[in-house]
Design a protein that fits this description.
The complex is a heterodimer of chains A (about 775) and B (about 160). Chain A is an alpha+beta fold and about 775 residues long. Chain A has three domains: about 15 and about 455-605, 2-Layer Sandwich (Aldehyde Oxidoreductase, domain 4), CATH 3.30.365.10; about 30-120, Aldehyde oxidase/xanthine dehydrogenase, a/b hammerhead (Aldehyde Oxidoreductase, domain 3); about 285-455 and about 610-770, Aldehyde oxidase/xanthine dehydrogenase, molybdopterin binding domain (Aldehyde Oxidoreductase, domain 4, 2-Layer Sandwich). Helix content of chain A is about 25%, strand content about 25%. Chain B has two domains: about 5-80, Ubiquitin-like (UB roll); about 90-155, [2Fe-2S]-binding domain (DNA polymerase, domain 1, Orthogonal Bundle). In chain B, helix 2 (about 90-95) crosses helix 5 (about 140-155). The termini of chain B are far apart. Classes of the chains: A alpha+beta (about 775), B alpha+beta (about 160). The complex binds FE2/S2 (inorganic) cluster (2 copies).
C-alpha cells in the first residue's frame, strides 16, 4: 500500500504551527454581544426570588435572562437539564442568570448587582449517601423527564439510570470457588481541562432560523437536540464548528449552545458569545463523573474466575443527560477483558449536588478499570499466582462470551498478545529492587478493553468531490479535536483513488448545512465508521469515473484502472484520460459532452447491533472491541510517598495503524493524561460542596517535567475484517489503565493496596504510614 | 478610564495604540491587533498559552500590562514565518507530530524559538525546563521535546 500505513504529516499542521488555525474564540461577528453568567453559591437551594433591576441599569447591558425565561428541559439521553437554574440550584456553579451586554466589562459589573434570595436545602455530597433511602432528592420530578428507551431512571430516588447485566448463575459460581475476595474502590470527579475552554456564539435570526458557531465535538447532536427542544425544523438550524482546542468528551453532546441562542433572541437577534474563563471551565462546565465500585470475585485455587458480583456507582452530579450512558457502558463491559462465566453486575448513575458529569475519554472504562485491574492484582496475590499468569488464564479470547453474552468475533483482537508484549518489554518477573534504604523500584501491569458506547443506529457518512483540475475534496462530519482522524481518512482516499494526499483537501470545518451527517465525534468510533463511509464514497467516485472513461476509451469498465491521476486501459497505459478531463463532464473535440460533476457518497452504520435486554443486559452493544495493556516501572520513596515513573510500556491491538505516527501520538498523549488524572487530579470540595481548587495552580495537570523517562509503544495489528483496512479505534483507549498499573507496582513494592485515586504523594504517604 | 498612547513594534511593524491602563498585553494582541494565534486559556499565568516574545524574552502576555510595552518589540507566532516559509522549529513540530488540537502549539513554537536562539545546543533537561511553563493536554509533551532537540541536532 502506498498511503495507508504510512506516517504522513497531519493535514492540519501548517495552520496550527503558524497560529492561523481558527478556533471558536477567534470568531468575531458584526454586532456581537457578550454574556456572563451568575453562578450559584449553594450546592442545593431553592431560588426564592431574583432581582436584577439594578443590574439592568448598567450602561451597555442589553438584557438579563433567568431560568424562568426558558421553561423547558434539554438533554442527550435524559431531558433533565435546565438552560439556567429553575426553582432550585443543584451545584455550586450552576448558572442562575445570564447578563448580555455590549462588552464583557459591563456584563461583569451587572452580574455583581443581581440579588438572589436562596433557601438552602440539605445537599447530597457523597454518591453513597445519595443512595440512602432518606437522601434528599436532587430531581424530585425525575419521573416526568423524557428519556431514551435504553435507560431506566427510578423516580423517587437519585438513580438516573440502573443498568443490570446477568450471565450464568453467580451463587453456583461462588460455591465452586475456593477463594472469594471483595474490595471497594473510589475515584474523584476530575476535569477534562481542554486547553481551549468552552466557547460558543449563537444567533437567533428574525426569520426563526438559528446560527451557531461553537467549540463542539458533535454539531449534528447539537442541531438535533436544539431542534427537538425548541420545535425548530432542522433545516433552519446551522451549526458551524472550526478546529476544536481539545475535547476529550467534554465538548460532546450539547452544552451551552441552547443558552446563547436563546439569549440572542432575547437580546434582539444579535449574536451572543459565551467564552468560559478557566475558573468557569472548572465550576460550570461538565466534568468526569466520580466513581465508587465494589467487586466480589470467586476463584479456584488454580486461578480460574468462577463468579463475579459487581456494583458500580457513578457520581453524575446535578445532571445526568449524558452520564446515564456512561453507567450503561461501564455496565456492559464491567468485567474488563476477562471471561467470567457467572456474573451479576449492576451499574448505577446517581445524582448528587456536585458539578454535572459528561463523557470523558474512556467513558466509564477509565473508572471501572481502576477497580477491576486492582482487584485482579489482589486476587492473584490471594491465591499466590503471578498476576500476568492469572490475567492470561482468564483472558477474554475470541470465541468466549462477553458480559452481555456476545461471542467475541474471531478477528476481535488479542488481549493475551497485549499483556505478553508489555510484560516482555517491561522485563516482568524480576522482584522489586531497593536502590537506597528508602527507594524501591518495582513494576506493575494492568490490562484494558473498550468498545464504542453508542446507540445501535449511530451513523457516519462521507462525500468526495472530484474538482475540475483533478484534485479531490473530502467532507466528513467527524470534527478535528486533535485526534487526527481526518488525516487518516485522507490517506484512505489516497489509497482508494491512487492519488497523492497533497491533492486531497479535507474540509477543515464542519457546517451542518454542508457537511454529511455524523452522529457524534466520540467513542473512538470515527476512524472505523467514517473510514468505512469514506471507502464507500471513494468507490462510488471510482465507479462514476470509470463509467465515463469506458465510453470515451471504448473499453469495458473492468478493463480500466486509475493511477497517478489518470484512468487508463490495463496493459495499455498510452490509452488514457486525465481525471481532470472528466471531472465536470468529458468534452469531445466537437463540443459534445458526456457525464457531469463527479460526487461520491458513502455511509456506514454498525452491523447487527442490538438494544440490550432491560432485565439481563444481554445483547450486542459493540461495533468492535479494542484491547490493550500498560506496564510501568516506578521508583517509590517510602519515606515521602513520592513516585517517579521510570518506564511505561503500552501495547494496543489497533487492527491496522493507518498512520503509525498518529497512533503513537494518541498513545503517548493519552498515557500522560492518564498519569495526570491518576496521580494529581481531583475536584476538592469544602464541606458545603464548593470546589476549592478551580484553577491550574491548585488543580495540577501534567507538565513537560512530569512525563515518564521512557515510553515504549507496541502496536499490534490483528486486523478486524470489517474495519477500514482492518483498523480499530484507539483514541480513548490510550488513557486507560495506567493508574492501576502504578498502584499495582506500589503494591509489589510495599504490599500496600491503595484503592482510592488519586495516587498523590500525600495519599501514598498516608497509606504507607497506616501500614507501619 | 483615561487611555494612554503607546508606541511599539510587533512582528517588525511599528504601531501606535491608545490603551486603558488596566488592559493586558494579551488583550492588546488578540482584541486590538486581532492577532488570534496567541491563545488565552487561564489569564492568570498558569498555562503559558499566551506566551510571546517581549524584547526577545518569553513573557506570559496575560501578566503584562499593555502600557508596559511602550517602546518595546514584540514577536508573536504570526511573526515567525515570513511568506509561508516555515521556520525549522515549525517544520520539526510537523515532522514529529508535536501537535494535536493545536491550541497550545503557538506558545510552544515561540518558546522553542527563544530557547534555540539563546542556547543552540540544549540538553534534554534544558528543553524540558524551558517548556515546563506551557501546558498541553493532548501530546504528552514527548514529541514537542523531540522536535526541539532534533532542530538543535540538525543545526550542528
Ligand atoms: S492565558 Fe496567560 S498564562 Fe494562561
Ligand atoms: S495539542 Fe492540544 S493542548 Fe497541546
Amino acid at each position: 500500500m502506498k498511503y495507508v500505513g504510512k506516517s504522513i504529516q497531519r493535514i492540519d499542521a501548517f495552520e496550527k504551527v503558524t497560529g492561523s488555525a481558527e478556533y471558536a474564540g477567534d470568531i468575531e461577528l458584526p454586532g456581537m454581544l457578550y454574556t456572563k453568567l451568575l453562578l450559584s453559591p449553594y450546592a442545593h437551594a431553592k431560588i426564592k426570588s431574583i432581582d436584577f433591576s439594578d443590574a439592568l441599569k448598567v450602561p451597555g447591558v442589553i438584557t438579563i435572562a433567568i431560568g424562568e425565561d426558558f421553561p423547558f428541559r434539554i438533554g442527550l439521553y435524559v431531558n433533565d437539564r435546565n438552560i439556567l437554574a429553575r426553582k432550585k440550584v443543584r451545584w455550586v456553579g450552576e448558572p442562575v442568570a445570564a447578563v448580555v451586554a455590549e462588552n464583557l466589562e459591563a456584563a461583569e459589573e451587572a452580574i455583581e448587582l443581581i440579588k438572589v434570595d436562596y433557601e438552602p436545602l440539605p445537599p447530597v455530597l457523597d454518591v453513597r449517601d445519595a443512595l440512602k433511602p432518606d437522601a434528599p432528592l436532587v430531581h424530585e420530578e425525575l419521573g416526568e423527564y423524557a428519556h431514551s428507551p435504553a435507560f431506566n431512571p427510578i423516580p423517587g430516588t437519585n438513580i438516573a439510570n440502573r443498568f443490570v447485566v446477568k450471565k450464568g448463575n453467580v451463587e453456583e459460581g461462588f460455591k465452586k470457588s475456593d477463594v472469594i475476595v471483595e474490595n471497594e474502590f473510589l475515584m474523584p470527579q476530575v476535569s477534562h481541562v481542554p486547553m481551549e475552554p468552552h466557547t460558543c456564539i449563537g444567533q437567533y435570526m428574525k426569520d426563526g432560523s438559528i446560527k451557531i458557531w461553537t467549540s463542539a465535538q458533535s454539531p449534528f447532536a447539537i442541531r438535533y437536540i436544539l431542534g427537538y427542544s425548541l420545535g425548530v425544523p432542522l433545516h433552519k438550524i446551522s451549526v458551524y464548528v472550526p478546529y476544536v482546542g481539545g475535547g476529550f468528551g467534554g465538548k460532546a453532546g450539547i452544552n451551552f449552545e441552547p443558552l446563547v441562542v436563546l439569549l440572542s433572541k432575547k437580546a434582539g437577534y444579535r449574536p451572543v458569545k459565551l467564552e468560559l474563563t478557566r475558573e468557569e471551565q472548572f465550576m460550570v462546565a461538565p466534568v468526569r463523573q466520580g466513581f465508587y465500585g465494589k467487586i466480589k470475585t470467586g476463584v479456584t485455587r488454580d486461578g480460574k474466575i468462577m463468579a463475579e458480583k459487581i456494583l458500580y456507582v457513578f457520581d453524575a452530579g446535578a445532571y445526568a443527560d449524558y452520564g446515564v450512558n456512561i453507567g450503561r457502558a461501564a455496565g456492559y463491559s464491567c468485567t474488563g477483558p476477562y471471561y467470567v462465566p457467572n456474573l451479576e453486575g449492576e451499574s448505577l448513575t446517581v445524582y448528587t449536588n456536585h458539578p454535572w458529569g459528561t463523557a470523558f475519554r474512556g467513558f466509564g472504562h477509565f473508572e471501572f478499570l481502576w477497580a477491576i485491574e486492582r482487584q485482579m492484582e489482589i486476587v492473584a496475590a490471594e491465591i499466590g499466582m503471578d498476576p500476568i499468569e492469572f490475567r492470561l488464564k482468564n483472558a477474554l479470547l475470541p470465541g468466549l462470551t462477553t458480559p452481555t453474552g456476545e461471542k467475541l468475533r474471531e478477528d476481535a483482537g488479542r488481549i493475551d498478545q497485549c499483556i505478553k508484549a508489555v510484560a516482555e518489554k517491561i522485563g516482568w518477573g524480576t522482584p522489586p529492587v531497593k536502590i537506597t534504604p528508602n527507594k524501591i523500584r518495582a513494576k506493575g501491569i494492568a490490562a484494558l478493553w473498550k468498545a464504542p458506547a453508542m446507540p445501535p443506529n449511530a451513523a457516519s457518512s462521507a462525500i468526495i468531490k472530484l474538482n475540475e483540475d483533478g484534485t479531490f475534496l473530502l467532507s466528513v462530519g467527524v470534527t478535528e479535536i486533535g485526534q487526527g482522524t481526518v488525516t487518516a481518512l485522507a490517506q484512505i482516499v489516497a489509497e482508494e483513488l491512487s492519488v497523492p494526499v497533497e491533492k486531497i483537501k479535507v474540509v477543515p470545518f464542519r457546517h451542518t448545512d454542508l457537511t454529511p451527517y455524523s452522529w457524534q465525534t466520540v467513542a473512538s468510533r470515527n476512524l472505523f465508521m467514517e473510514g468505512r463511509a469514506v471507502i464507500r464514497a471513494a468507490r462510488d467516485v471510482k465507479e462514476q469515473i470509470l463509467e465515463v472513461a469506458s465510453q470515451v476509451l471504448r473499453v469495458p469498465k473492468d478493463d480500466l484502472e486509475i493511477e497517478d491521476e489518470k484512468v487508463y486501459v490495463k496493459g495499455r497505459p498510452e490509452w488514457s484520460l486525465q481525471l481532470k478531463d472528466i471531472a465536470a463532464g468529458y468534452v469531445y473535440p466537437n463540443g459534445n459532452t458526456i457525464g457531469g460533476p463527479i460526487i461520491g457518497r458513502g455511509y456506514y452504520v454498525g452491523s447487527r447491533l442490538t438494544y440490550l435486554d432491560p432485565e439481563t443486559g444481554q445483547g450486542y452493544p459493540a461495533l468492535k472491541w479494542t484491547f490493550g495493556a500498560q506496564a510501568v516501572e516506578i521508583e517509590l520513596d517510602t519515606e515521602t510517598g513520592e513516585i517517579k515513573i521510570l518506564k511505561l510500556v503500552s501495547a494496543f491491538d489497533v487492527g491496522k495503524a493507518i498512520n503509525p505516527m498518529l497512533v503513537e501520538g494518541q498513545i503517548v498523549g493519552g498515557c500522560v493524561q492518564s498519569i495526570s488524572l491518576g496521580m494529581w487530579e481531583e475536584y476538592k470540595y469544602d464541606k458545603n460542596g464548593r470546589m476549592i481548587n478551580p484553577n491550574l495552580t491548585d488543580y495540577k495537570i501534567a507538565r513537560a517535567g512530569d512525563i515518564p523517562e521512557e515510553h515504549i509503544v507496541v502496536i499490534i495489528e490483528n486486523p478486524q475484517k470489517d474495519g477500514p483496512y482492518g483498523a480499530r479505534g484507539v483514541g480513548e483507549l490510550s488513557m486507560l489503565s495506567v493508574p492501576p498499573a502504578i498502584a499495582n507496582a506500589i503494591f509489589h513494592a510495599t504490599g500496600v493496596n491503595i484503592n482510592n485515586l488519586p495516587l498523590s504523594f500525600e495519599n501514598i504517604w498516608k497509606a504507607l504510614k497506616e501500614k507501619r | 478610564m483615561e487611555k494612554k498612547k503607546i508606541i511599539f513594534k510587533i512582528n517588525g511593524v511599528e504601531k501606535t495604540v491608545e490603551v486603558e491602563p488596566n488592559k493586558t498585553l494579551l488583550w492588546l494582541i488578540r482584541e486590538v491587533l486581532k492577532l488570534k494565534g496567541t491563545k488565552k486559556a487561564c489569564e492568570r499565568g498558569d498555562c503559558g498559552l499566551c506566551t510571546v516574545l517581549l524584547n526577545g524574552e518569553p513573557v506570559k502576555s496575560c501578566l503584562v500590562l499593555a502600557v508596559e510595552v511602550d517602546g518595546s518589540e514584540i514577536v508573536t507566532v504570526e511573526g515567525l514565518s515570513r511568506d509561508g516559509e516555515l521556520t525549522p522549529i515549525q517544520k520539526a513540530f510537523i515532522e514529529h507530530g508535536a501537535l494535536q488540537c493545536g491550541f497550545c502549539t503557538p506558545a510552544f513554537v515561540i518558546v522553542g524559538h527563544w530557547l534555540l536562539n539563546r542556547n543552540p545546543n540544549p540538553s534534554r533537561e534544558e528543553v524540558v525546563e524551558a517548556l515546563n511553563g506551557v501546558l498541553c493536554r493532548c501530546t504528552g509533551y514527548r514529541p514537542i521535546i523531540e522536535a526541539i532537540l532534533d532542530v538543535a541536532k540538525k543545526r550542528k
